[in-house]
């Protein structure tokens, strides 16, 4: 299973986006191993340009299996945020929740250095496409 972060979706959806990222996302989608979570869906949908784009993206994203944001996910994300803050490493709360959703459930496919910071304190299966 692969949880595709919004940093990758945005590049995939951009007409001039990275060909390597586009190919990787297509491969994941074709394998039917893509999953999502609520935070990623919100991040993508709020950036839709038109109502039509919004509806198409919504239908596509919500057709993927979703990882629920449970109490366990929130507890884990909170703990990691607490630990990172004590080390002087601040990352967005949304990235903590996305990481927690992926933790031991899916490989996180991303293009965002904050996930590498979070991975420094947890066991995160990840694929960094930042320089693809």
How is this structure best described in words?
The two termini are 20 Å apart. The chain has a five-stranded parallel sheet. It has helices spanning 6-13, 19-30, 38-45, 51-62, 71-86, 93-102, 113-119, and strands spanning 2-4, 34-37, 66-67, 107-110, 126-128. The protein is an alpha/beta fold and 132 residues long. α1 (6-13) packs across α2 (19-30) and α5 packs across α6 (93-102). The chain has one domain (2-128): Rossmann fold (3-Layer(aba) Sandwich), CATH 3.40.50.1010. 55% of the residues lie in helices and 12% in strands. The chain is globular. The protein contains seven helices and five strands. The model has no long low-confidence stretch (mean pLDDT 97).
Give a brief description:
This protein has helices at about 5-15, 20-30, 40-45, 50-60, 70-85, 95-100, 115-120, and strands at about 1-5, 35, 65, 105-110, 125-130. It is α/β, with parallel strands linked by helices and about 130 residues long.
Describe how the helices and strands are arranged:
Layout (H helix, E strand, L loop, with lengths): L1 E3 L1 H8 L5 H12 L3 E4 H8 L5 H12 L3 E2 L3 H16 L6 H10 L4 E4 L2 H7 L6 E3 L4
Parallel strand pairs: 1-2, 1-4, 2-3, 4-5
């Amino acid at each position: 299973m692969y949880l595709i972060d919004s940093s990758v979706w945005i590049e995939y959806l951009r007409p001039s986006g990275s060909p390597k990222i586009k190919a990787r996302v297509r491969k994941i989608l074709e394998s039917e191993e893509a999953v999502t979570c609520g935070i990623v869906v919100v991040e993508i949908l709020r950036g839709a340009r038109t109502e039509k784009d919004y509806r198409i993206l919504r239908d596509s994203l919500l057709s993927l299996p979703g990882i629920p944001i449970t109490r366990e996910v929130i507890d884990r994300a909170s703990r990691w945020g607490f630990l990172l803050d004590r080390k002087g490493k601040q990352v967005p709360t949304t990235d903590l929740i996305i990481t927690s959703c992926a933790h031991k459930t899916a490989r996180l496919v991303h293009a965002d250095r904050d996930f590498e910071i979070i991975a420094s304190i947890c066991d995160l299966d990840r694929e960094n496409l930042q320089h693809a």
